[in-house]
Design brief:
Layout lengths: L3 E4 L2 E4 L6 E3 L7 E3 L5 E6 L4 E6 L2 E2 L27 E2 L28 E2 L25 H4 L20 E4 L8 E9 L2 E6 L4 E5 L4 E5 L9 E4 L22 E3 H10 L5 H7 L3 E3 L6 E4 L1 E2 L2 E2 H5 L9 H19 L67 E5 L5 E9 L5 E5 L4 H8 L16 E5 L5 E9 L5 E5 L8 E2 L4 E3 L2 H5 L21 E2 L1
Antiparallel strand pairs: 1-2, 3-4, 5-6, 6-7, 8-9, 10-11, 11-12, 12-13, 13-14, 14-15, 16-18, 17-18, 19-20, 21-22, 22-23, 23-29, 24-25, 24-28, 25-26, 26-27
């Protein structure tokens, strides 16, 4: 189950996995869910051991002369918790390897029937009856008197069937971090896979362990040298990312950033000499943040009077590249906003201020791989062009209305409760009279339709903005309130009022909103807090 073979007390990777589950659920203890027949073929002449699962033999021997030395005594044995049996032949369930068909024999000195070795438990303290200890008076010889020593599992290493063969990778980014389980072998070393299909594997050509964010054994994000040629475990330390993963940018953008910062002439060449790589065919330069052990930070310290830090210079170059890419995509006025990765596994907030000068609208687009730790994360956009630090009496502002619409006004002051008092704009008497004489769309036979924007009279006597959700057979209409109340949704035609499109998009005066019809008469100020 653990994709490992054992010989002389040492595990060796095995590129196979038996069907299993975990019991209890959530633990690392595997249980086989189907019967598995393991084939073992011993070639004493060639000093080789071959293994098979359900009749499928490995392509090469698992152990050779290096492990099975001349004069070594071999005997069949098994260590397990569960049910099993030995079949020493000559009637095998599956055929031996093709090279051994004419010279396979039963193991010497064994019987011809299946020998059961069921062992549902390891150790048996019930042999001691009601006592959990015994006292022995007199001489005790371990060779003559003791058959087995049994210790509590907390005092000894866990047995092979209970050992955890998982790896935990941390600080490797959102796509490589996590728990990896053993799934087979690659280049005679164990291979591991996470729930996101990231893999940890060994590359014999470079003699290095590698981590990739997908099940692709030709690429990698991190690598580390193997501790030794015989080690079967990935190293705990020494993991490195390739130079291009640590940062690379086009030379023209980095040189342009240096010019912006006032760095010119020989200092530029001195700074980039060890970090730049040129393509022989295209001549395009690429600047690495780390190259062959040389870092930008170390080179930056050699400048006589650097205007900023190396990190700020790199950010300046990256900003130039982002502007270039956005312009090529037709998004010259856009901004890229990126949160920290990975998200912290605790309650926290993140805020970013973005200024889009001259923008008349806002459109948000999320990267396809955006994700959160759970479904409780919230993303809010708070817009506005007024800096609260400079707001004061006389400032012109816009006040958003609950249920849709915007009113304009002037800051009149700030009360003791720290709330702003906004004097709202109002129309003159002539404009108000013309509004009263305007014919209503509701006089037509086809108004309102499903999806129309209307003002509805709520049971409190206040008009609220709503959308027509359904036209009922009894002549009434079902509304979806913009203020989100779920009650008093069914309204007659007399309880509805049209909302002309020009009011929604152009008007910002108090009288143009039905819900504020009962405001003080002309000459009186109305305020919003």
């Amino acid at each position: 189950q653990n994709a490992a073979l054992w010989h002389d007390g040492q595990p060796k990777a095995w590129n196979t996995n038996w069907p299993h589950d975990f019991r209890p659920a959530g633990s690392n203890i595997k249980h086989a869910i189907t019967e598995v027949i393991v084939g073992v073929c011993v070639d004493l002449d060639q000093q080789q051991l071959w293994f098979a699962t359900n009749g499928t033999w490995d392509k090469k021997p698992s152990f050779g002369p290096e492990e099975i030395r001349e004069g070594l005594c071999l005997y069949p044995a098994i260590s397990l918790k569960g049910r099993a049996g030995f079949n020493f032949g000559p009637n095998f369930t599956h055929s031996p390897p093709s090279d051994f068909l004419d010279r396979v024999a039963r193991w010497p000195g064994t019987c011809s029937r299946v020998v059961r070795v069921d062992n549902p438990r390891l150790g048996n303290e019930e042999m001691l009856s009601i006592y959990k200890e015994v006292q022995i008076h007199g001489e005790v010889s371990f060779k003559r008197n003791v058959q087995r020593l049994v210790a509590n599992s907390k005092y000894r290493e866990a047995p092979k069937i209970s050992r955890s063969w998982t790896l935990k990778v941390a600080r490797a980014g959102p796509w490589c971090s996590g728990t990896y389980r053993r799934v087979g072998a690659h280049d005679d070393k164990p291979m591991y896979r996470s729930s996101t299909d990231a893999v940890v594997y060994y590359d014999a050509g470079t003699r290095r362990w590698r981590i990739n964010d997908k099940a692709d054994l030709s690429g990698w994000h991190f690598s580390a040298p193997s501790a030794s040629s015989c080690s079967q475990d990935p190293p705990r330390l020494g993991w490195e990312a390739p130079d291009e993963r640590r940062g690379v940018i086009a030379g023209e953008h980095f040189r342009g950033a240096l010019q912006e910062l006032g760095i010119r002439g020989g200092e530029v060449q001195q700074l980039l000499s060890s970090l730049t790589v040129s393509d022989h065919e295209t001549g395009v330069e690429r600047v690495f943040r780390v190259r062959n052990g040389v870092t930008l930070e170390a080179q930056w310290e050699r400048l006589t009077q650097p205007p900023c830090s190396a990190a700020e210079a790199w950010d300046t170059a990256a900003a130039r590249l982002r502007r270039r890419l956005l312009e090529e995509a037709g998004l010259g006025g856009a901004e890229v906003v990126e949160t920290c990765h990975p998200y912290e596994a605790r309650r926290h907030q993140w805020r970013r201020t973005v200024r889009l000068r001259g923008a008349e609208g806002l459109s948000l687009h999320f990267a396809s791989r955006s994700c959160t730790l759970d479904g409780k994360a919230r993303f809010r956009v708070q817009t506005g062009g007024l800096d609260r630090g400079v707001a004061g009496v006389g400032t012109r502002v816009e006040v958003p209305l609950q249920g849709g619409g915007i009113l304009r006004g002037t800051v009149a002051g700030r009360g003791p409760d720290r709330c702003w008092r906004i004097r709202l704009d109002r129309r003159g008497r002539e404009a108000k009279a013309s509004t009263a004489l305007r014919p209503s769309v509701a006089d037509t036979a086809h108004w309102p339709r499903v999806g129309d924007l209307v003002d509805g009279l709520y049971r409190t006597g206040i008009w609220h903005r709503a959308t027509v959700a359904e036209a009922c057979s009894d002549g009434t209409f079902l509304l979806d309130w913009h203020d989100c109340p779920k009650k008093d949704r069914k309204k007659s035609l007399e309880e509805l009022s049209e909302v002309p499109q020009e009011i929604v998009t152009e008007s910002h005066d108090l009288e143009d909103h039905k819900r504020y019809a009962s405001v003080p008469g002309d000459g009186q100020d109305c305020f919003a807090l």
